[in-house]
Amino acid sequence: MKNKIVGNMGLLLLAIIFSAGLIFAFLELPRLLDELLSKRVAFPGFDQGAGDVNAFKAELFIQGLHLRWFGYGSLLLILLLIVTGYATKRSGWALAGAVGLFIPVFGQFALSMFFLAGLGLLRVGWLPFLEVSSFDLLDLGKVIYVPYWILMWLLGLFKWNAHTFLTYLFMGAGSFMFTWGVLVWLRSRFGGKKVASSWIYRISRHPQYLGWIIWSYGFILFTPFINQMKKTWGVPSSLPWLLMTMVIIGICMMEEVKMMKVTGGAYQEYRSRAPFLLPLPGWLNRGLTWPARLVTGGGYPARPSQVVWIVLIYTVILMALSLFWVDFKKGASTDASPAVSGTEMAEIMTRLDEMGDSRRGIWPLVTELPRYGQAGMDTLILLSRHENPVIREFAIQVLGAQRYQEAEPVIVNALSDSVLRVRSAGIQAVGNIRSNLAVEKLIYMMAHPEINNQRFLICGALGSIGDHNAIPCLAEALDLPEYYNQTAALNAIMAIDPDTGVAYAIKELRDENPEVRRNAVITCIRSGDPAVKGPLGSMLGDEDFEVRLYAKQGLKRFEND
User: Residue 385, by phi and psi: left (phi above 0), alpha (psi -120 to 50) or beta?
Assistant: First the structure.
């Protein structure tokens, strides 16, 4: 008995070490690769953030480093691994291809992936998906979020925003299931059994694969809500996850075909009493497996060709269902303004008061208000004066994002708020609505050191407003020590007066900070002014890789024009 207990404890420890090591390797190896490329091979970094400037930089990187070839080649390699794995019955190869489909999702998550244009080497494989369609092709996997939406709705009935809970629930349950499956598999192998059929294998014939699927589902629920630094390349994760999952399901079927040949009746007997992946009611299981039974004639897949057809059919069905959530008119405005009663609006106000300082709870309530038309906008103006600074901040932010001109007085008033976050929201909002009333106040704020950490926001707002009176203070900001303030000031001058902006950009090419020089080169290129060709040519020998790359690609553009 003592030996049995010691043996079981040893197997449990081995299963935990294996599972933890696998997850750790998945998270850590990309970081080590990043460190190798950035420090040992000296691959360049990349400015992070949204906007036309960063999108332009990304395009120059793609062209200069031939990343399209790399991206399309990566996708082709992944597909070859999957096809070869199925054709040769080598599940390991197909699994490598499936994980390759999911790797870009990790690149979306890994904020440290700065190499290769900041796209992250792991996300370059998404380039083909992003460039072949005018709509978000990667949204063709959105049907996978239906279980999450249902759970959020059910828990929302109890006024519980359970996103964080569900995220960690899926990841925790998946990790537990994977480890348990490994433990039972090890016990079966050490016990001389050819078919693992006890414990968790009674409720799933493939618990390790199921654990990975559930864990990765929680992972993609987490990634859209993190502080995504690479906003230029913030892309959906649903289709890569869907494709990966379907390939893994196909691998499970392939392994069952192999097990039938190896063990014969033993596996057939086990398969008749254990669910494939999840235990489901009979009527639901029959409905879900109906397409598969059409392919196999009512039985289990017996040939690789049948497995391939089943995977393809289910993938097409799920992608077709996702069409209900695809935005084919991306960026198109909507005039939908549902009627709202005074009681409903009062309920929203009450819920906001109950949230306290919970930013996660307040944000969805405030951002929902514009849907209610004029009543919602009037409520936002009222909330912009709320005693809770979080509510004030979000209300001002939404009013600015909606470019609601009638709110100009309260937005300008937010520039004098005692709370930093509210002032920041006000600065961005006056830029969004292009408030000329705010120019004098913004120029005053630029001259005072106590708002030093807001100067780059002020520069952006002044650039959006476009008042020429702001150019002198923006020119002074070019001498600030922080590169991000210099960059924001130059971009603002360029937005107000391109001719003046080009002259300042040429001067900035001689700045000692490479970040400033990079932005100056980009500014020169985007200006399209032939007068910058000479200064750009002088930057081809710059010590900074990105400066040289930008200058070279910019000169090519001028030659092509």
Answer: alpha
Q: Which residue has the tokens 């079981």?
A: 8
* Contact present, 498 and 509 (Cβ < 8 Å): no
Q: Do 312 and 371 fall into the same domain? A: no
The answer to whether residue 221 is domain-embedded is yes
Helices 238-263 and 91-109, axial angle in degrees (round to 10): 160
Domain boundary pick from 325, 350, 378: 325
Q: What is the pLDDT of residues 135-166, one digit of tens each?
A: 567 778 889 989 998 998 898 888 787 888 88
Tell whether the model's pLDDT for residue 336 goes beyond 80: no
Same domain for 230 and 377, yes or no, is no
- Asked if residue 3 has pLDDT above 90, the reply is no
The CA–CA distances, whole Å, from 234 to 111, 123, 139, 334 equal: 11, 10, 13, 23
* CB 180, CB 217: distance < 8 Å: no
Pairwise CA distance, residues 397 & 503, whole Å? 34
What's the pLDDT tens digit per position in 271-294? 888 888 888 888 888 888 888 888
Domain assignment present for residue 13? The answer is no
Residue 102 lies in domain? 44-175+202-325
pTM of this structure: 0.62
Domain count within the chain: 2
Same domain as 321, residue 350: no
Which residues, 6+ apart, have CB-to-CB distance to 528 below 8 Å? 561
Tell me: do 307 and 350 sit in the same domain: no
Average pLDDT score over residue span 188-204 = 76
Q: Regarding predicted confidence, which is higher, 31 or 227?
A: 31
